[in-house]
Design goal:
The chain is an alpha/beta fold. The protein has 13 helices and eight strands. The longest helix has 34 residues. The chain starts with a helix and ends with a helix.
Length: 373
């Protein structure tokens, strides 16, 4: 009896020691993960849980679903001037203004289309961004149609709407290799911007994830709807979460494991009921590039496609032509060969050119444009 009790006590002591060790390691892991920037209660760390999120209106969408820059946005970069069309420019992009510039200056009109790189991020001021550096030279007037957070569908819509009216001498399409290639064939959303930026928080994409919304490419109607959706599906603090979920939301490890498993289950359930259609991601991007090329050809306007490498692939140079060939196929495109991580403001996919990168890319584009003379 004494011997059995001794074994029981020994086993209990071992269990207590193991539990204490586990608890200490768990707490250390929690601390380390928090120091690394991971947040508790949310699956994605750049989405902050807030009781009163502040939507920062930055974009508006027209009748075609083209995103324009909201002129009174609080998040515009230093030196930004927005014209009547809702693009970055010191004058309105009208046929009269373009004809006047061509007549009285002799400069060629370049219509440049792209995302945040083309809008000018992240030079210290707009005058140091590559579109402005290009425009400050003697040969070209640049019509800047760059809008942050957009994609080849936007570029295609812009060319179709404005190229015929403005008749530029060259259409220049700048494609960022980091996130410009389409992952699904989204439909334009007239009246609803493609992203909802929040103050000190994530820019929420306006299209919901299919397996979470239970609809194909569902578009949020308002910023509130978008934020509530993220709170409910990407965090454990949404209004419909129960007490258990809200309790475990205070742990980085447990909450992320729970949310990861929850998403896996919902994805499995969706795959059982969703149409089994495979999307050729190469082809849906190529379709848009080809459409742009076709529109320019119909107007007899030269069209130039130029790529921007991600910060980590700038040194790959000419190899990028092969790497991204499937997205362009027969559409000719150009890539710079002299970039490195030093030309960007960081090494993540979401980083942009610094001043030196903008200067080098302006020189690269100038060389391309001069060849089109």
């Amino acid at each position: 009896m004494v011997k059995g009790q001794f074994r029981q006590n020994t086993t209990m002591k071992k269990f207590k020691v193991q539990f204490i060790i586990f608890l200490v390691l768990f707490l250390l892991a929690e601390i380390v993960l928090r120091v690394m920037g991971m947040k508790s209660g949310t699956l994605i760390d750049d989405f902050g849980i807030e009781d009163h999120p502040q939507y920062m209106k930055r974009f508006v969408s027209d009748e075609m679903g083209i995103n324009h820059i909201y002129p009174n946005a609080e998040t515009l970069m230093l030196g930004t001037v927005i014209n009547e069309q809702g693009f970055r420019g010191k004058f309105d992009y009208t046929k009269a203004s373009v004809d006047s510039i061509r007549k009285y200056t002799g400069r060629k009109i370049v219509m440049i289309v792209g995302d945040s790189y083309v809008e000018g991020c992240c030079a210290d001021t707009m005058k140091n961004s590559f579109p402005d550096l290009l425009a400050n030279g003697p040969r070209y007037e640049v019509l800047n149609f760059g809008v942050s957070g957009t994609d080849p569908i936007q570029y295609d819509l812009i060319v179709k709407k404005y190229a015929k009216e403005l008749r530029p001498d060259i259409v220049l399409v700048v494609v960022y290799f980091g996130n410009d290639f389409l992952t699904y064939d989204r439909k334009p959303t007239p009246g609803t911007p493609l992203t909802f930026p929040f103050k000190k928080n994530k820019w929420i994409y306006a299209i919901a994830t299919n397996h979470l919304s239970k609809e194909v490419n569902y578009a949020f109607k308002t910023s509130d709807e978008a934020y509530d959706f993220y709170m409910q599906h990407y965090t454990l603090r949404g209004k419909d979460r129960n007490w258990f979920q809200k309790t475990i939301s205070h742990s980085v490890i447990i909450s992320k494991l729970y949310l990861f498993a929850e998403h896996k289950i919902k994805k499995y359930e969706w795959d059982k009921i969703a149409p089994t259609t495979l999307v050729d991601v190469n082809e849906i991007t190529h379709k848009r590039f080809k459409s742009i090329q076709k529109e320019c050809d119909s107007l007899s306007i030269p069209c130039v496609f130029a790529g921007i490498p991600m910060p980590t692939e700038g040194t790959e140079g000419s190899a990028l032509k092969t790497k991204y060939k499937n997205f362009f196929q027969e559409v000719p495109y150009n890539v710079p060969t002299n970039f490195s991580e030093k030309d960007y403001d960081g090494t993540d996919m979401a980083n942009h050119f610094n001043n030196n990168g903008h200067k080098k890319y302006a020189e690269f584009l100038l060389n391309l444009l001069d060849k089109k003379k």
